[in-house]
Amino acid sequence: MQEEMAMRICPECGRRHEERLDACPECGTSFEPEPEAMPPWRPLANVYRAPDEIAAIAVKYVLEGAGITSWARSIQIPWYDNLMKFARGYWGDILVAEEDREDALRVVGEYLDRVAGRA
Ligand SMILES: [Zn+2]
Fold first, then answer.
1. What is the distance in A from the centroid of ligand 1 to the CA of 23?
2. How far is the CA of 51 from the centre of ligand 1 (A)?
3. What is the residue range of 17's domain?
4. Tens of pLDDT along 6-65?
5. Burial state string for 94-116 with b = 16 or more CB within 10 A and e = fewer than 16
6. Looking at the structure, do residues 48 and 85 belong to the same domain, yes or no?
7. Are residues 99 and 64 in the same domain?
8. In terms of domains, do 39 and 16 share one?
9. 87 CA to middle of ligand 1, Å?
10. Ligand 1 centroid to 5 CA: how many Å?
11. Ligand 1 centroid vs 7 CA: distance in angstroms?
């Protein structure tokens, strides 16, 4: 992880701000993390329940390294971020195409074993 804060630019007003924010502090535009739209024409399988966004990004990265495309689906609602985390106890799910399910579960399982082994 870089020490430097990740920044992004509001598509509405162009203001720079920290990437971790869910909405622009200037104009209130919500930043739903949807750079990759979920393909509704493919059946998706849930392969990992992420406790937080960092874990979700890590698992997505691991899957990408194994050549498996994945999508993160956050259950969080902007503005009620902390409340939702408290209520549900997890951040969201990592989904893959149904045909990649077995490979993805194996890759994620191996990754989680490695992480647990280092702890
Ligand atoms: Zn803005």
1. 8
2. 28
3. 1-31
4. 777 888 898 887 777 788 888 888 876 555 555 666 788 999 999 888 999 999 999 999
5. bbbbeebbeebeebbeebeeeee
6. yes
7. yes
8. no
9. 29
10. 18
11. 13
Cα 9 to middle of ligand 1, angstroms: 8
Q: Are 17 and 10 in contact (CB under 8 A)?
A: yes
Domain count, the chain: 2
Q: What is the pLDDT of residue 38?
A: 59
Residue 17 sits in the same domain as residue 38: no
CA of 35 to the centre of ligand 1 (A): 17
Q: Are residues 23 and 73 in the same domain?
A: no
DSSP conformation class of 80: -
Residues 60, 76 within the same domain = yes
Q: Rounded mean pLDDT of 89-118?
A: 91
This prediction has a pTM of: 0.57
> What are the φ/ψ torsions at residue 108 (nearest 5 degrees)?
-65, -40
Going from the Cα of 28 to the center of ligand 1, the distance in angstroms, rounded, reads 6
Label the pairing between strands 92-97 and 44-50.
antiparallel
